Please model this.
Amino acid sequence: MNTRNIFLIIAFFLSWGRANAQFEGAEIDSWLSENTAEMGGRSILLVWQNGHIVYSHAVNDMSGRQKFMDKIIARRQGKPADLDDFTPTSRIAVASCSKWFSAALVMTFVDEGKLKLSDTVGKYLPVLTRHGKGNITISECLSHLTGIKAPDLKESIRDMKEVNSMNEAVAQIADMPMEGKPGKVFRYSNVGLQIAGAVLEKITGKSFETLFAERIAWPLQMKNSDFGKGKVAMPAGGAYSTPEDYLNFLVMILKKGVFNNKRILSENSVAQMQVNRCTPDIKIAYSPAEAGTFGYGYGEWIMEGKAVTSPGLFGSFPWVNNDKKYAAFMMTYYLKSTGRHDRYVELKGLVDEAVGK
Model:
């Protein structure tokens, strides 16, 4: 065997060793054990790096009260209570984690030239023009810069469940007051993505749910993810998903729009989604406490260290670290938001450290 072949063999095994290095997850195990009781009693975390899942761990620490409440909720929904451990295929509502899905869906139309980020919504939805909101752009819809003074998230979700069509949902938004010039006021809410979803339905003649299935869920093999069976899709918070499904989406984002060698989004669209639109000249009218000092792009928060995320009201926490080249998703289900921001940052720090070893 010549020297060149020996060198190639050594290089291969060194490379293989780096790609398959042991993920040191003991500290993360401990963190999940210590924090899960405060996060609804159940959690599961998946971490993907170098082509495969390097960490998967679930904790079930439900108290008697949490189990009782789950049974009550399940009874109201007409289904059996699920008190088992979360698994990679557990399916729950992911609330604002939906925003990332919906922004990506909009960007598929931008990639195809069927929509421009600079397009004004009045072009597609005249009712908004009649109410002085027609000059809002698609870009501003995706980044919560519409200037519309929307109700808080819980009230908005409750109101949206009462509408019977996307047109009715847009008419409801049209009646909301303005609190500033579009592009100059940031208010984290459901209205921008609801408007964007209505625009997609107008230009295609298809439902938002169908478009999501065709352009995001099916190509990403997200077999158990959708926007529910309600009368009107809620692009900003109505998705259901599983840890393994959501991780497929995150891997696509990490790989700059490609999944299983198939392009879902252009590299430019992924990059545009990750540009912080909350510049110093933007007035912050409302930002949830759990976001801390994060910036905001299209459907996702911008964290420190080239990381992006879109956590939900029920506590689930997806993120992509572009610098350390990994993706992760923690599924939880609880409403108490106290301490969430610190938990997110702490958990991300532990995973950053583990993948870097």
Q: What stands out?
A: The radius of gyration is 21 Å. The CA atoms of residues 35 and 343 lie 8 Å apart.
